[in-house]
Amino acid sequence: METVTKQNTIKDKLIAEFDYSKNSFFGDLTLRSRAMESFAKQGIPSRKSEEYKYVNLGLILKGEFAFSSQHKISREQLVDTHILKNAIVIAIENGVLNLSNSELTNLPKGLQIIDITVASSNEIFQTHFSKYSDVDADPFVALNTALTNGGVFIHIAKGAIIEIPIHIIHISSVSENTIINPRNLIVVDGNANVTIIESFRNIDSKAKTFNNALTEIVIGENSIVDHYKIQDEKEFGFLLNTTHVNQNTKSVFTTETFTLSGSFVRNNLAIVLAGEHIESNLNGLYLTNENQVVDNHTLVDHRKPNCNSNELYKGIIEDKSSATFNGKIYVRKDAQKTNAFQSNKNILLSDDGTINTKPQLEIYADDVKCSHGTSTGKLDEEKVFYLRARGISEISAKKMLMHAFASEVVDTIKIVELRDFVEEKISKRFE
């Protein structure tokens, strides 16, 4: 597909791309057209937008962009991105599912994996697709809904226990500045159990990839879902990652986000607790350096009584990098007996680093237990002195303290092999 070059703004270019390509897209063109109308109305958010005020998206999206890539990713490059030796691998390459590089033979009973471009005739897909991501709530949700041309639909049947983790590898390698819009829908029926890993990796690129990725996850009654995100986008990776989760009665959902690199990483995570006796756990760790920007926005929406949510995000910020944590807990009037806790802790390793943190509670019920807190500071010099007094060098002492700070999040990873992988990545960053 050719790069659009004769428009004045990136917004104009995106609208022109939709008009040019709309008849070749999969799925419901009416839904796509409505989404593009919403995007045209909202536009690219500026710093005047409360939700994006710490990010200069106009600068990030300045210049010419293509909207698909023919750059091929070799099997060797893909294997290098594997995290687990034993996993069901789904390769999303430059925003499009590559079945030949995926490992989908002999799938466990109750697991269905379909290219999203051919899933539109599936009844379960039709029931849930784009039902939880509101195109009017965020311009990038609207943009993804309008322009997506690849991704995967995963269905876990009622009662299925998927013992092997599912690893969705988002891998990018482009030869010119490119915007991609991968879209995933994951539906977990009742009494099921599954572990899903999403990793984001930019490799061998000399050009900018703006990855506007959107995943919807639907969790049935009494189901357990563990969800991990490993973000390692390198110098040319620009990731805007949106995840919308809808939980039903007595389900348990745990999500862990590890941001290890990338020029710009924005995470939008929204979880709706739509039934009673639900548990939601949100953990995150972000490590920033140089001029990197990491922006975490979370929303936990308690709609029914007797539910619990726990949230812990930690960050280590160095050089001239910046990080944002904006977390909101919303407790509706009917959500009595809610227990909701939120914490954000940060370490600043330089005087030039920036952290913006805004924990929020919005409560309309009167019988609840909710709390939130935030802290930002430097490494404890007394602890550094204590370790140095015992023969440990200053550099080693600081590494030990940073590892200890990060371990509260890392230790929540249930898969040993994945935990070792994250710890190794963190150790290399501290070196």
N-C termini distance: 42 Å
- The total domain count is 2
Helical coverage, percent range: 10-25%
Largest sheet: 10 strands, mixed
List unreliable stretches of 5+ residues. Answer: 1-7
The portion of residues forming beta strands comes to 35-45%
- The helix/strand series, from N terminus to C terminus, equals HHHHEEEHHEEEEEEEEEEEEEEEEEHHH
Q: How many beta-strand runs?
A: 20
Overall geometry comes to globular
> Strands of the biggest beta sheet: in what spatial order?
2-1-5-8-10-12-14-16-18-20
Mean pLDDT: 93
Class computed from helices, strands and strand pairing: alpha/beta
Rg from Cα:
21 Å
Number of helices: 9
Give structural notes.
The protein has 431 residues and is an alpha/beta fold. 21% of the residues lie in helices and 39% in strands. The protein contains 9 helices and 20 strands. The protein has 2 domains: 10-274, no CATH class; 380-431, no CATH class. It is globular. The chain has a 10-stranded mixed beta sheet with strand order 2-1-5-8-10-12-14-16-18-20, with helices on one face. Strands 3, 4, 6, 7, 9, 11, 13, 15, 17 and 19 form a 10-stranded mixed beta sheet that branches.
